[in-house]
Amino acid sequence: GIQVEQSPPDLILQEGANSTLRCNFSDSVNNLQWFHQNPWGQLINLFYIPSGTKQNGRLSATTVATERYSLLYISSSQTTDSGVYFCAVYSNYQLIWGAGTKLIIKP
Amino acid sequence: GAVVSQHPSWVICKSGTSVKIECRSLDFQATTMFWYRQFPKQSLMLMATSNEGSKATYEQGVEKDKFLINHASLTLSTLTVTSAHPEDSSFYICSAARLAQSYEQYFGPGTRLTVT
């Protein structure tokens, strides 16, 4: 089956720093989604992005489907950005999840 | 738009009792709902997929008699953990999708179950 790998597994940054999270996937996929899971467990949809680039405020994502990777950019980090960021790809209608990147933003 | 709620947000129950968790799509009709389980420091594990009006499809290794899923309407799915044991303690998350329009899943806030 499809494998999804995220890197880095952990990231600790100071408030105000920028970061790039990476998601590699092993086969062609229908679509890809980035999520932020906050410390209370709520999963927040960040981007639903099969290809190209999308931006939402300080966050942006780029998926290069032909090369089987996606990047999530976080600029000017805030402490509220802390949590786990998951990448998940769609195989038919089911989601295949990466292991996540745990991000800690220090004040 | 695309808001999904879960109730309760947390529950503590005794071994041997049953617990029902509700998942509702508040502002859209969900043809398909998904139930996930998440262990600490891990990603989500799909338990089952349910379509309105039909039996749920369970993933390999998930006991269908222990985790009863009912998708009674286009806005409501329930997960009942029967005869709960401490090993059933976990974070349960549902999601909803309108597969005819898009694969995108919208997630509920999760239910933390503790079995004592």
Explain the overall architecture.
The complex is a heterodimer of chains A (107) and B (116). Chain A is built from no helices and 11 strands. The mean pLDDT of chain A is 95. Chain A is globular, with a radius of gyration of 13 Å. Chain A is 0% helix and 61% strand. Chain A is mainly β. In chain A, the strands form 2 sheets. In chain A, strands 2, 4, 5, 9, 10 and 11 form a 6-stranded mixed β-sheet that branches. Chain B has 116 residues and is mostly beta strands. Chain B is 0% helix and 53% strand. Chain B has no helices and 11 strands. Chain B has strands spanning 4-7, 10-13, 19-25, 32-38, 44-51, 57-58, 67-73, 76-81, 90-97, 105-107, 111-115. In chain B, strands 2, 4, 5, 6, 9, 10 and 11 form a 7-stranded mixed β-sheet that branches. In chain B, strand 4 (32-38) and strand 5 (44-51) form a beta hairpin. The termini of chain B are far apart. The model of chain B has no long low-confidence stretch (mean pLDDT 93). The chains are: A mainly beta (107), B mainly beta (116). Chain A binds chain B through residues 30-31, 33, 35, 40-43, 45, 48, 86, 90, 93-95, 97-100, and chain B through 32, 34, 38, 42-44, 46, 49, 91, 93, 97, 99, 102-107, 109-110, 112.
